[in-house]
Design goal:
Length: 254
């Protein structure tokens, strides 16, 4: 039986990865800052991290934060994994980290490089944005009487459970390097996603597209975060909304 450690194993993605690996008969340890018996802050490392990794064959690294520290966390994890004799490190990244000059994306790309140069067997999967995150952003934007959107922006949301399926599959296999990107089934205008969200939540708002400036906006507008050639996800945004909010799947897409 393979022993697998999932970092960020109580989070949106990590929790689902843990469930799938346990269902497959693996011994799975969950590492997060507040989850016993492996409550570890990866930014600090320490003996607790060494204890969590003792006897582990594979690590699935899902832990991340936009508040900073991901590179330090990855460096601590890699050093401890080497000491423990881990043979496979699986990392979840984001489509476009090498094309979109957003600070968080640059950090994810830097962690990818650490993983690749770790000396461990490694696998990196890049995925597009989860449905959950898109809804979170749209919910914030819809708090105002007018929903202001970046003009000409598109997205390709993917179901987090499908990404968890893929990560669990990769964790069960041999190190594969950088695998094919994983994108949602549709590339959509951000306006069409916003209108679908408004219908599903029963809100009436005007939607206004606002042109923006800057390198990051130009990269998003150019589709640097999209992977239309790898639209392997199955669940659409409307199907996700219908389950979450109880709405219908109708409505024009754009």
């Amino acid at each position: 039986m393979t022993t697998i450690l999932v970092t960020g194993g109580t989070g949106t993605l990590g929790r689902l990865v843990t469930e799938r690996l346990r269902a497959g008969g693996h011994d799975v340890r969950v590492l997060s800052r507040h989850s016993e018996p492996y409550a570890v802050d990866l930014r600090e490392g320490g003996d607790g991290l060494d204890t969590a990794l003792a006897g582990v064959d594979t690590v699935v690294h899902c832990a991340t934060t936009q508040r900073g520290g991901d590179e330090r966390s990855a460096a601590n994890l890699i050093a401890a994994a080497r000491r423990a004799g881990v043979t496979h490190l699986v990392y979840i990244s984001i489509v476009g980290v090498d094309r979109v000059p957003l600070g968080y994306y640059r950090t994810k790309l830097a962690v990818e490089k650490l993983v690749e140069e770790s000396g461990l067997g490694w696998t990196v999967l890049r995925a597009t944005q989860f449905h959950d995150l898109v809804v979170q952003v749209l919910g914030i934007l819809a708090r105002l009487p007018v929903v202001l959107l970046p003009a000409h922006a598109r997205d390709q949301p993917v179901e987090v459970a499908e990404v968890a399926d893929r990560l669990a599959e990769l964790a069960r296999g041999a190190p594969a390097g950088r695998v094919a990107d994983m994108g949602g089934p549709e590339v959509r205008t951000f306006e069409s996603l916003a209108r679908a969200h408004l219908r599903a939540t029963g809100r009436r708002r005007a939607v206004v597209n606002v042109p923006l400036a800057g390198k990051t906006y130009r990269a998003f507008r150019a589709g640097g975060h999209l992977t239309p050639g790898h639209a392997v996800g199955r669940r659409t945004f409307e199907e996700y909304l219908a389950e979450r909010f109880g709405g219908g799947e109708g409505g024009r897409r754009g």
